């Protein structure tokens, strides 16, 4: 089988190393053509050029015809590791290896960094150091709040898509692209800032012989917007648990549940009002939420009901607010320990205080930036869905969903029915890409077909799966392998959630879980940040854990050491 997609890129000669690390959490599946043009491959590139040109790179270093950070190979989005490492190479206080650890986890197979001509350029080093100093001394970052106001206004001003003309629907999609670019530039900056500020605390803890103390300090920060839906769903789950009528409706299964609840009458009124409020606030979220083609909670409310169904089985000990408060108390204790250890060193004590303040600004800001971007994507999604429905209604597309197989520049031609067959053919090819397993990284040339085939890995005979500690603490429980957040059947309170990747749509599943294990991810991954908020242990970068750990096995998760131990004979 040949590896290729009609819109694949060629690797950059000057920056040849690419990885699925980090980006694979956001785009776990092949990226559709319309999504590519409207997000990272298109408007996202504009945003990254704006940020990185103020930070680590001169744009004349980028090879002609190449994106500055994200490119597509085999239909999958890859991140340019060579460019990401410049943050470590071109600053006074970091290294490329620290960048690897922060963004990509403990993958030992990554090639060594090769120095570049401008790494010692005084102007670039001064530029990078200056921006990093501004992050380290930040007590707020108003840019993200400005984006929130702008995007919320766009959502509020959404036209009636059902009566809009097809040209207006296309215009609405395109209206989102420059907004995406602006917010994405801020997202790039706050992500880098979160890594730098938290990295300073990590380096201090390691230097003082207290590894893992940094993980505890980062717990329970508050204001992490991606955790907010879990709180709302928890409240809904308590309504179900306390109502015989609601419990009976859920016990009958989640298929057709929304309709049964509507037919239930008075016992379901408050529940449905709470569900509507959740969807109004968080309806843009959902599995693989950066992909226009993916369902969102707002378009598929049953996805939310499935998550509530898992939560309702938990007792009050799983209350996410109580767990958050406990995590905050542990963080305060850990911070006090570190403060005591550096009390006699004015410089270290000062660094600790400013880094702690700054990380508490940028870690929530990173999640808020992502949530704001997802709202922008959702506005484009809603317009695209209506546009596709129109084209399919009279045969200009074979199916409404084929609209996502179109490039942005082809939307006008699609109105004339010129691309129906081509979109159908692309859909068939696109779906075949799901059978591929993209390599974690490559250098220079895109690997051949053999490297993409993947295989069903047998359950591990080894007792320990080594990953990287993301959220401190230990937990023991039954491993439950979940590959799709919309199908979490079998996950029970106290289980250890084991997943290949996570994104914010997985967050509600963290509530009943006693611990989380993820195949990929680094110290700034979504799973880590949310686990810290909920005070549950988390191990990331546990390569192949979702295939190596037998479903149902008893396991012990150590979020301090990054180990997952398979118990029993």
Please tell me about this protein's structure.
The protein is globular and about 75 Å long. It folds into two domains: 17-208 and 345-433, no CATH class; 226-316 and 457-569, Glucose Oxidase, domain 1 (3-Layer(bba) Sandwich). The chain has an eight-stranded mixed sheet with strand order 5-12-11-7-8-9-10-6. By secondary structure, it is of the alpha+beta class. Strand 9 (515-518), helix 21 (526-534) and strand 10 form a beta-alpha-beta unit. Helices cover 48% and strands 9% of the residues.
Topology (SSEs and partners):
Blueprint: E1 17-19, H1 23-26, H2 33-38, H3 43-53, E2 70-73, E3 76-80, H4 81-84, H5 86-89, H6 96-104, H7 122-136, H8 142-156, H9 166-207, H10 213-217, H11 228-241, H12 244-251, H13 257-264, H14 269-282, H15 302-311, H16 320-341, H17 346-393, H18 411-415, H19 420-432, E4 441-443, E5 464-466, E6 468-471, E7 474-481, E8 496-499, H20 507-510, E9 515-518, H21 526-534, E10 538-540, H22 545-548, E11 554-558, E12 563-566
Parallel strand pairs: 7-8, 8-9, 9-10
Antiparallel strand pairs: 1-3, 1-4, 2-3, 5-12, 6-10, 7-11, 11-12
Properties at a glance:
569 residues; alpha+beta; Glucose Oxidase, domain 1; 2 domains; eight-stranded mixed beta sheet; four-stranded antiparallel beta sheet; 22 helices; 12 strands; 48% helix; globular
């Amino acid at each position: 089988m040949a590896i290729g997609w009609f819109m694949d890129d060629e690797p950059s000669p000057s920056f040849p190393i690419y990885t699925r690390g980090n980006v694979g959490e956001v785009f776990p599946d092949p990226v559709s053509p319309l999504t590519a043009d409207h997000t990272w491959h298109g408007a996202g590139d504009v945003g990254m050029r704006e940020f990185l040109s103020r930070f680590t790179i001169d744009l004349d270093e980028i090879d002609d015809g190449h994106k500055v950070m994200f490119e597509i190979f085999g239909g999958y989005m890859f991140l340019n590791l060579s460019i990401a490492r410049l943050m470590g190479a071109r600053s006074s206080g970091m290294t490329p290896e620290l960048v690897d650890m922060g963004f990509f986890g403990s993958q030992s197979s990554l090639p060594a960094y090769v120095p570049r001509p401008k790494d010692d350029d005084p102007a670039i080093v001064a530029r990078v150091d200056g921006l990093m100093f501004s992050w380290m001394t930040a007590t707020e970052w108003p840019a993200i709040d400005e984006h929130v106001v702008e995007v919320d206004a766009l959502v509020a001003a959404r036209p009636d898509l059902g009566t809009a003309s097809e040209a207006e629907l296309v215009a609405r999609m395109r209206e989102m692209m420059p907004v995406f670019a602006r917010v994405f530039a801020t997202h790039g900056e706050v992500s880098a800032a979160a890594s730098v500020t938290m990295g300073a605390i990590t380096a201090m803890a390691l230097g003082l012989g207290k590894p893992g103390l940094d993980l505890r300090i980062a717990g329970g920060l508050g204001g992490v917007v991606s955790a907010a839906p879990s709180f709302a769903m928890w409240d809904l789950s308590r309504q179900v648990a306390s109502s015989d009528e609601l419990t009976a409706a859920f016990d009958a299964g989640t298929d057709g549940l929304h309709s049964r609840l509507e037919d239930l009458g008075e016992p379901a009124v408050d529940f449905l009002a709470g569900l509507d409020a959740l969807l109004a606030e968080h309806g843009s979220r959902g599995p693989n939420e950066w992909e226009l083609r993916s369902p969102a909670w707002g378009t598929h409310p049953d996805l939310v009901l499935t998550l509530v169904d898992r939560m309702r089985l938990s007792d009050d000990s799983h209350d996410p607010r109580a767990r958050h408060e406990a995590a905050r108390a542990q963080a305060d204790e850990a911070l006090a320990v570190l403060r005591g250890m550096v009390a006699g060193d004015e410089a270290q004590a000062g660094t600790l205080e400013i880094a702690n303040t700054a990380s508490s600004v940028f870690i929530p800001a990173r999640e808020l930036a992502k949530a704001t971007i997802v709202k922008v994507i959702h506005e484009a999604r809603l317009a695209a869905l209506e546009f596709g429905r129109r084209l399919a209604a009279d045969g200009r597309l074979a199916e409404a969903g084929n609209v996502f197989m179109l490039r942005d520049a082809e939307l006008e031609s699609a109105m004339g029915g010129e691309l129906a067959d081509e979109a159908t053919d692309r859909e068939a090819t696109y779906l075949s890409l799901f059978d591929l397993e993209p390599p974690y990284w490559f250098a220079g040339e895109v690997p051949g077909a053999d490297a993409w085939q993947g295989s069903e890995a047998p359950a591990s005979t080894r007792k320990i799966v080594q990953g990287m500690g993301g959220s401190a603490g230990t937990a023991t429980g039954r491993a439950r392998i979940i590959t799709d957040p919309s199908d979490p059947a079998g996950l029970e309170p106290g289980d250890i959630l084991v997943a290949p990747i996570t994104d914010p749509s997985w967050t509600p599943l963290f509530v009943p879980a006693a611990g989380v294990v993820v195949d990929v991810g680094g110290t700034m991954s979504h799973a880590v940040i949310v686990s810290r908020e909920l005070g549950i242990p988390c191990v990331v970068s546990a390569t192949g854990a979702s295939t190596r750990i037998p479903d149902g096995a008893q396991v012990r998760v150590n979020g301090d050491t990054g180990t997952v131990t398979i118990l029993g004979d």
